[in-house]
Amino acid sequence: MKLKRKCGNRAGFTLAETLLAVLILLLVSVIVATGIPVAKNAYEKVVLGANAQVLLSTTISALRDELGFARNPVVEADSVTITYYNAETGIKSQIAKDGDGKIVLKRAKGTMATMDPRPLVSDAAATGDLYATYTGVAYSGGCVQFTGLRVCRKDSDVDLTGLSSTVQIRVFAPNVVSAGLIYEMTTTAPASADPGTTDPGSETPAGGE
Predict the structure, then answer these.
(1) Which of 3, 58, 60, 85 could form a disulfide with 71 if both were Cys (CB 3.0 to 4.6 A apart)?
(2) For the chain, domain boundaries
(3) CA separation for the pair 56, 133 (Å, rounded)
(4) How far is residue 209's CA from residue 206's CA, in Å, rounded to a whole number?
(5) Separation of CA 8 from chain center
(6) Greater pLDDT, 9 or 137
């Protein structure tokens, strides 16, 4: 008799227990569904910021390399274009911005008007529709200064690096072939050069070899 009772005992979950289990499952599903997009957006922001920092550093290096051999730099009337000659090749060049605000480089074969601009930094370095731009450029006392240098995303002028930098590129000897260059990031005007400082090798003493 006892064995028969045990075999016939088929009691399961009550309705309340079933509803509670379904409710818990729904809550877990909502938390997971909400958390995944948030985590994805946070990851994308971190990656985007890192790429922007890399592009900004690459742009500064490209400006440094390009202007390191600049002679007779002149800022045009638009205050965003600088024209100069390469001290080694004598080729007339320009750094400017295109219609989208991207930094471009021109090299003259005849006149500047016949030159198609090319990006200062290759498109391969500008991942995720990123591009580098600046607000203005000035030249004074052997120092080329780019204000508002930043990295933005296409169709947006928001600075992705978290700061809008003023980059100063100092050309020690802008009128000789052996032009040297340093650069620094600052938010103040460049310090005046020491009158006693000269560029080693820029001048040959009279009667020297």
Answers:
(1) 85
(2) 43-186
(3) 9
(4) 9
(5) 75
(6) 137
Taking only the tens place, the pLDDT of each residue in 86-123 is: 887 888 889 999 888 889 998 887 666 666 788 898 87
DSSP letter string over 57-103? HHHHHHHHHHHTTEEEEEE-TTSS-EEEEETTT--EEEEEE-TTS-E
User: Identity (one letter) of the amino acid at 39?
Assistant: A
Six-digit token pair at 131? 């591009």
Distance CA 175, CA 161 (A): 35
| Measured distance CA(12)–CA(10) in Å, rounded | 6
Q: What is the pLDDT of residue 158?
A: 63
Strands (E), the chain: 70-75, 82-86, 92-97, 103-107, 118-119, 130-133, 136-140, 143-153, 165-171, 181-186
3-state DSSP helix/strand/coil % of the chain, to nearest 5: 30, 25, 45
pTM of the predicted structure, to 2 decimals: 0.64
Q: 183 vs 146, which has greater pLDDT?
A: 146
Express each pLDDT in 169-190 by its tens digit.
Answer: 877 544 443 333 333 333 333 4
Fill in the amino acid letter for 119. Answer: P
Q: Which residues pair with 150 in a beta bridge?
A: 133
